[in-house]
Amino acid sequence: MIALSLIGIGTGNSDHLTRAAIRAMNEADLILLPRKGDAKSDLIDLRRTICADVLTGETRIVEFDMPKRADQPAYLEAVVDWHDAIAAIWMEQIALHLPDGGTLALLVWGDPSLYDSSLRIAQRLGPAVEVSVVPGITSIQALTAAHGICLNRLADPVLITTGRQLREKGWPKGVRDIVVMLDGHCAFQTLAAEGIDIWWGAYLGMEHQALAHGPLETVGPDIIERRALLRERHGWIMDVYLMRLSETLSPPA
């Protein structure tokens, strides 16, 4: 039997770890760290730093190479195939490093329940793997904390969506406030910007955290330019943003 612990590690700052996360890391026999290529070497470096900061026992650390997702029009099919490939690698690593069973930990950016597929991939591992989750600070929490704002307006809902959904379907119906994640192409530029405010953040909680806030029509172009420069400088970028319609605008019905 393998006990798999999916541990939310926040947005890359070891100060974001809960005591439960630190305990789970130290109780694990093995921690697997994914390598995603030279362009994203900072990501594995951050995971290595987190391990160095909090591990006090004999937990083993093993690194493995992540498969690449196929670039094809059928997005969902490509993601399913990619998840299958990741699950197969996890099983290979388990068989190699925990042949007699034990406790495995995987460090998940943010929280395993929010726009992360570790839980879906773990479902492919079969009944011999018992999965538990240690929640972590999400990029949404880090964004609102960095800007010093509430996520929701008084008694109003907030919708969480993706850049792909915003680009393909426009502003969601019936809501004034939306959070957009996984947006690699600044989908907000497809909107009519007048009457929309944006709160944007990248590398939240890290040394090179970047923030911007203001009317979308004036701040949006700056975010696009700044994001491109940051991505070029660091080789990768993780960002998220909140947008709000003004009280004078009605959301799509």
UniProtKB/TrEMBL annotation:
Molecular function via GO: precorrin-6A synthase (deacetylating) activity
Positions of the Tetrapyrrole methylase domain: 4-219
Keyword Ribonucleoprotein annotated: no
Biological pathway: Cofactor biosynthesis; adenosylcobalamin biosynthesis
UniProt KW keywords: Cobalamin biosynthesis, Methyltransferase, S-adenosyl-L-methionine, Transferase
Catalytic reactions on record: precorrin-5 + S-adenosyl-L-methionine + H2O = precorrin-6A + acetate + S-adenosyl-L-homocysteine + 2 H(+)
Gene3D superfamilies to which the protein is assigned, alphabetical: Cobalt-precorrin-4 Transmethylase, Domain 1, Methyltransferase, Cobalt-precorrin-4 Transmethylase, Domain 2
Protein name from the UniProt record: Precorrin-6A synthase [deacetylating]
Annotated organism of origin: Sphingobium herbicidovorans (strain ATCC 700291 / DSM 11019 / CCUG 56400 / KCTC 2939 / LMG 18315 / NBRC 16415 / MH)
Phylogenetic classification of the source organism: Bacteria, Pseudomonadati, Pseudomonadota, Alphaproteobacteria, Sphingomonadales
